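Researcher: Structure prediction, please.
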Amino acid sequence: MADSKNPSVTQAQAEDAVRTLLRWAGEDPTREGLLDTPRRVAEAYGDWFKGYNDDPREYLARTFEEVAGYDEMIVLRDIEYESHCEHHMAPIIGRVHVGYIPNGRVVGISKLARVVEAYARRFQVQEKMTAQIADVIQDVLQPLGVGIVVEGAHECMTTRGIHKRGVSMVTSRMRGTFHDDARTRAEFLRFIEVGQARR
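Model: Predicted structure follows.
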């Protein structure tokens, strides 16, 4: 299991909490098929929520200035993510599209994906996650602008409550020139073509 941000909670306590939920749901946690479930769930939580152990700012700290004067938009699209709704602890599955216009410095594209992962692997609200990704890129890289679009399918809506499948939520956050210049924003949105099939 990943290191907990709260060392006062032990693995054994986490497993006991899972046994309590199993009993509350009407199950017997001592039956054969469920004996290892508490351990497995605790370990899964360590993976699903390992973003609490990451500092997204660190991923953006190393940049490159030798880019031959490149000053046009950089877009990394279709970054898949898995998160969990903080209201029901249900999965959110989707994609993030990141665009920015460098101001003399660029960052390795894998670092952008790592920033997404660090925020996604926490309990989240999609709107908040969208803002967090945009704001940390703007604050650390100081580009001319940043555009973030997030698509997400929320299992808290499809597997409970209203039970509506095939619904996705789209959120965006535009900073700098992406916010101020409609042409820049339109170019970014053309690049990512949210909701449309791409060849």
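Model: Residues 54-193 form a domain with the GTP Cyclohydrolase I, domain 2 fold (CATH 3.30.1130.10).
Researcher: Thanks, that helps.
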